[in-house]
Every structure is written in C-alpha cells, then in structure tokens.
Amino acid sequence: MNVTGIVWVLSLLSAPPTPSSDLLCAQRAPCQVVETLDGGKDAQGRALEVKHLELGWADVETSSQFLGRKFGPGGRSESGSRESGQCEVGEWWLVRPSQPAQLLLSVCNNGYGAAGVGDDSVTVGDNFFTHEQSGGSRERWTLTRTLQLSPLRLLRESQRSYDALDDGDKESGELWDFETLRGEVIRAAPTCEPGESSLGERSLPYLPQVQVDKTYLEEGWKKAGLGECGYTAGNFLLGNQDDPKDASLKALLVAPDTLLVEVHDDKWTGPSAKWLNDDHVEVWLAPEAPQELTGCGKPTAEQKPSQWGIRIVDGQVFPAFGSPRQTLQVERAALPGKKGYLLKLKLPTPFKGISVVYSDSDSGKKQELMLATSLVKFGRPETLNPVRVVSPKEATCAVKNGVLAVVPGPPPKTEPDVAVLGMP
After folding, report:
1. Alpha carbon distance 200, 198 (integer Å)
2. Per residue in 320-350, pLDDT tens?
3. Ramachandran region of residue 104, left (φ > 0), alpha (ψ -120 to 50) or beta?
4. Taking the CB of residue 240, how many other CB atoms lie within 10 A of it?
5. Contact indicator for 238, 368 with CB cutoff of 8 Å
6. Cα 161 to chain centroid, rounded
7. Taking 60 as the threshold, does the pLDDT of residue 11 lie above it?
8. Residue 116: CA atoms inside 13 Å, Cβ hemisphere, count?
C-alpha cells in the first residue's frame, strides 16, 4: 500500500461516524440509528420495529428541557464526558406501517447519581418494550418498566433499591402488574436499635381497590363472584391445605370503605357459644401503611391495628383485638349449593393497612386452618396488606361469564414526539 492509501485509511479510522440517513435523524446531527429491533406484529399482522438512536452528548442543565421528549436540533456534540457536566443522549422510537413514528423513551445518562454507574438497558420482544434504568450513590436503585407496543399501554413497573456497602445484600422495592392488578412491596430486614426485636424481611402483597359499576355494587355482587379481580389468599397462618377444594378466600376493595369477600368451603360449622371455633372471616385494619413502618420494636398505641370477626353462617360481627368501638356493617349472600358465601362489608375509615383471614374449623371445636391475604402476625400492623388504589384510567372490573373480570382502561393518548415512558 502506498503512502496515499495509508493516509486515506487512517483518515477513515479517525473520522466521525457518517450521519444517519434515517428520517428520524433528519437535521438532528449528531444522530445515528445504532440498532433496529423486532417488536413482533400488531393485531392486524403488521410489523412493529423499535429504532434506537444515539444523539451524542448534551449539557446536563440544558438537556433537562428535552427529557421525556424528542431532543431538538443543536446543543449536542459528538464527544463529551460526565466529568464535564454532560450526559449521553439516547432515544427509542416505535415504527409502525401507515402511522407516524412514536417516541417511546428519551434519556440523557449523566451517571444517574454520585457513583456514576448509571445505565439504561432496553429489551424488545414480541409486542413489548422493557426499559431498565439504574443508578444511585451508596444507595443503588433500579427502575424497570414494560410497555405493550400495540395498543400502547404500561404493563408492569418495578423499583428496587439496596445499600451498596451492605454485605447482606438487603433489597427493598415494589412492583405492580397493570394487567393482573397484582403487586407487592418488599422491605429489607431493618437495622434496629439495641434491644429492639425485628420482624425481618417483609413481603407485603397489595390488596387492590378497583372501581366497579353501580349496579354491581348495589345488587350484582350477590350473584357474581370476584373472579380474577379478587385477590386470592395464599398465606397459611395455621395448618396446611391437603385438598385445594377444602377452603378458599378472595378479597377485593371496591370503594375506600367497601370490601367484598368470597369464601368457599366443603363444610360449614357454627353457630356455637364460641365464635373462634366457628368458620369465620377476620378483618384487620390499621391507620398507617405497613410499608412505612420499620418493623423494629413494638407498634405504638397509635399504630396498633383493630380486628373484627365475622361468622360465616349468620354474618354476626365480633370485635376482637384492640376492642374496636366501631363495628362493621355486613351483607351476606350464599352461592348456589351453599358451597360458598359472598360478604359485602362496610368498613370504618380511614385505614391504610388491611388484611383478611378465613378461619376454617371442620370439627367446630378449634381453629384448624387459617388462610390470609398476608402473613399477618397477631397485633402487628407492619404485616398487613398495603392498599393499591387502581385508577379507572388503568383498569376497572366488570362481570363477564358470571364473575368479575379485569377491564383495561383506554390506551393513553399519545403525541409522536412525547415519550410514552416519561422520565421517572
């Protein structure tokens, strides 16, 4: 190779990337489409693609106006550094036939915290787009969100955090599934004061509060079970269940003060002189959200929960732990064949923690099985279910095939240049 050829090769190696000819990069230099990802097909069988754009470096302060939006022309450079107060700009766009490209996500990674370890990771699959963002300093965090691409809607969201200096790898967080209306809060085992007991790590399932139509709330609940909308209790506080048909419990809040409960059993006991030995439902309410309590030591008088028992066979209410002065209003309806009962409970408000327990006693002489919506520890508000209020924009519940079913809310209105996943 002659000298001219060597100079030509070296100039190519040192030259800046060739500007992309993609329309998404038009008049937006520096801009490169670095990957095109297959997003499967929509309901009509049309291809879905996600294009990842790299747009160089921007000043952290001036770039803030574009976060969650399409970055404008100018104000960016090919090279930069976080040490100089700059951030790396990236965008992800959904491309569909016969429709304008839709911005899914725009970021400017400045390290996302003092540790400078921030990262954006994207996964695209059959009709979904997942973005995981991480960062922090001593306290590290991760936020993960998953979108359905067609129709566009948020499917899942989770947050996790941990202390980078903790060898025990203690992790706290929360997650929510917008399709199933299920989620939980995780609280790592706390570091308590000397002499204080600890409840250890806590997993606190959300009990959803979901809107239903007025007709169902007034009379329809007596004929239609809770279906997939009801939260199925799966925590055994006493005994175990050899036969899944023996007993089951579902619960659903349908208003701030209204709880629906569905109980199934193969044998009903009661009434007797001692309600604890009869088949009954227990309701625990607490004034503070359980995830906000540390789990160290004993709860204060203001934090303590209240407990009521409701006997299944006649709906009679019994005040229990905390000797609550307020009572519950109970309506009761038997399912066909008396294999189950539906209860509509009017609850005293306000409360931020709630748990529902079914106590099964086939012998009528003692409690033999206790099935609960959370791992309730007697008198401990930190172990109740937090309430997750579901906006009608997210979902509602309506009767389908004789039981409640989740009805997704309408797809959100979008603007092509505004990110569907706005910055957290």
Report:
1. 5
2. 999 999 999 999 999 877 789 999 999 999 9
3. alpha
4. 6
5. yes
6. 15
7. no
8. 7
Q: Over the stretch 290-303, which tens digit does the pLDDT of each residue have?
A: 999 999 999 999 99
On whether the 208-408 domain is CATH 2.60.40.1190, my answer is yes
Phi, psi (degrees; rounded to nearest 5) at 359: -105, 120
Lookup result for tokens 């085992």 = 189
**Once rounded to an integer, what is the mean pLDDT over residues 371-386?**
98
| Cα separation values, 325 from 273, 318, 328, Å | 22, 11, 10
In the block, which residue shows the tokens 């199925």?
232
Q: For residues 225 and 302, what is the distance between their CA atoms, to the nearest angstrom? A: 36
The per-residue pLDDT for range 74-98, each reduced to its tens digit, is 889 999 998 889 999 999 999 999 8
Task: Report how far residue 175's alpha carbon sits from residue 183's, in angstroms, rounded to the nearest whole number.
Answer: 5
Backbone angles phi, psi at 280, to 5 degrees: -155, 160
DSSP-derived secondary structure for 281-304: EEEEEESS-GGGS--BSPPPTTT-
CA distance to 197, 291, 306, per residue, from 382 (Å): 13, 7, 13
**pLDDT reported for residue 9:** 32
* CA 172/CA 330 separation, integer angstroms: 37
User: Strand, coil or helix: what is 9?
Assistant: helix
Q: What is the DSSP string of 165-210?
A: T-TT--EEEEEEETTTTEEEEEEPPP-PPTT--B--SEEEE-EEE-
pTM of the model: 0.90
Half-sphere exposure of 417 (CA within 13 A, CB side): 5
Whether residue 381 is preceded by a cis peptide bond, meaning omega within 30 degrees of 0, is no
pLDDT score of 62: 83
254, 212 in Cβ contact below 8 A? Answer: yes
* Domain boundaries of the chain, sorted by first residue: 3-151, 208-408
Q: What is the pLDDT of residues 119-133, one digit of tens each?
A: 999 999 999 999 999
Asked if 138 contacts 165 with a C-beta cutoff of 8 angstroms, the reply is: yes
Q: Strands 102-109 and 76-77: what pairing?
A: unpaired
How far apart CA 91 and CA 34 sit, in angstroms, is 10
What are the Cα distances from residue 201, in Å, to 207, 239, 397? 19, 22, 32
